Amino acid sequence: MISLTDSQKIGMGLTGFGVFFLFFGMMLFFDKALLAIGNILFVAGLAFVIGLERTFRFFFQRHKVKATSFFLGGVFVVLIGWPIIGVVLEIYGFFLLFRGFFPVAVGFIRRVPVLGSLLNLPGISTLVDKVGESNNMV
Predict the structure, then answer these.
(1) What is the pLDDT of residues 33-79, one digit of tens each?
(2) What is the DSSP string of the chain?
């Protein structure tokens, strides 16, 4: 079992609430207030989980400038009141930021009993193979 510090536990809670508010804001036809709260909670939770310095280093690496610009630009666009455009920018930035993690996640999900069999269905397997092996989603 992984032991978490108190700040990491708080960060997990903030991140969870952030994802919930983002999902709920999209379900309610891109409600800008819920999306803004979700964005702030998600980024704050990430900073609590991995620490401020590591969060800063993650977002502002030289090869991730484009991804960070799209993600944080999308957060800003949602905060100023254009939720649909902001969410599209955020999603693109999110995929660019975490594209190196997708092969690991796909490999893990394929080992989970029920989800692994779902990922091996004919239409889904080709899509998952492309996402799982590509490191250049540009």
Answers:
(1) 999 999 999 999 999 999 999 999 999 999 999 999 999 999 999 99
(2) -----HHHHHHHHHHHHHHHHHHHHHHTT--HHHHHHHHHHHHHHHHHHH-HHHHHHHHT-GGGHHHHHHHHHHHHHHHHT-HHHHHHHHHHHHHHHTTTTHHHHHHHHHHSHHHHHHHTSHHHHHHHHHHHH-S---
